[in-house]
Amino acid sequence: MDILVIGGGGREHAIIRKIKESPLCGTVHCAPGNGGIAADAVCHPEVKATDIEGAVRLAKELKVGLVVVAPDDPLVLGMVDALEEAGIPAFGPRRNAAVIEGSKAFAKDLMRRYRIPTAGYEVFTEVEPALAYLRKKNAYPAVIKADGLALGKGVIIAKDEREAEEAVRSMLEGGKFGDSGRRIVIEDFLSGPEVSVLALTDGNVVRPLVSSMDHKRACDNDEGLNTGGMGTIAPNPAYTDEVAAKAMERIFVPTIRAMNSEGRPFYGCLYFGLMVVDGEPYVIEYNCRFGDPETQVVLPMLEGDLLRAMLATREGTLSSVPLHTHRGAAACVVLASGGYPVKYETGKEIRGLDENGQIAGSEATVYHAGTKREGGKYLTSGGRVLGVTSRGETLSAAVAAAYRAAKEISFDGMHYRRDIGRKAGASYGD
Ligand code: AMP
Ligand code: GLY
Question: What is the pTM of this model?
Answer without folding.
Answer: 0.96
